[in-house]
Amino acid sequence: MSMIDVRDLRKVYGGRKVVDGVSFSVEEGEIFGILGPNGAGKTTTVECIGGLRTRDGGSISVAGMDPALEGTAFREALGIQLQESRLPDKQTVEEALTLYSSFYSRPRDWRELLERLGLVEQRRTYFGKLSGGQKQRLSVALALIGNPRVAILDELTTGLDPAARREVWKLLEDLKGTGVTLLLVSHFMEEAERLCDRVVVIDRGRVIAADTPEGLAAGVSADQRMSFAPSAPVAAGVLEALPDVHTVSTGADRIVVTGTDNVASAVIIALHERGIAATRLRVDQPSLDDAFVALTGEDHGSAQHSGTDRKGASA
Questions:
Q1: Which among 49, 216, 231, 280 could bridge 291 via Cys, Cβ 3.0 to 4.6 Å?
Q2: How confident is the model over 156-167, as pLDDT tens digits?
């Protein structure tokens, strides 16, 4: 039995189909990603799955339960973190965690979450005094405090600095090892590539692609890209003449070459024959970000949010 099973999910607002026949399933212990442009229907989809919105059609099963029908048992099984959440401004972090812990029959140790999410120094800080990133970390902690079988995390690392983001990623990887099923909505392609076993891409309320992150990236018809600093000047036309090379761009101290999957080998051999070494070499393969842009026509991936543009290896 799939831990999450969504079939032909539909949601209409004012005559407009916001979610139009979305279907996918998530296996127990999987980290499953939902990707898509703004307004694609991602958040509406997960809010229907979490029982926060009433669907207009289709079926949903979470841990064998219909979120539209179940009560206490469903709330015990599910943790959810939304894009935006509010607590009383005068409630401290510790008070919020203690209160939420009391809602569940077998809660996670909130002190451990405080430590893992870097909120120890803020434990007695009022919610209204927290930074945006600290509020986001608290929201993640509250989603996980009930020891859920399934956790829905909508843009969980928005507003976090790189160090905090990676700590949250590590926590989720550890959770996966305990069998928790995670449904992750994200704009960070780097995040989806690192964490997700499988992803779906939703656009205009429909699923337009479903695969592993690696599978989606492999389906992109994109050039391989390499950049390097030559140990000696390279004569004009040497690299352009190579059959595997499509473009060559020369900067102040680096050369950028694009071409076929064999472009790196072809360039290195040509340089070696002329006694030139390629130093500070970086080779980039098509990434999930490239797949996202190819599928949706919109650049909402890692280039926009994390400062990296492609998945690469350097030497």
A1: 216
A2: 887 788 888 888
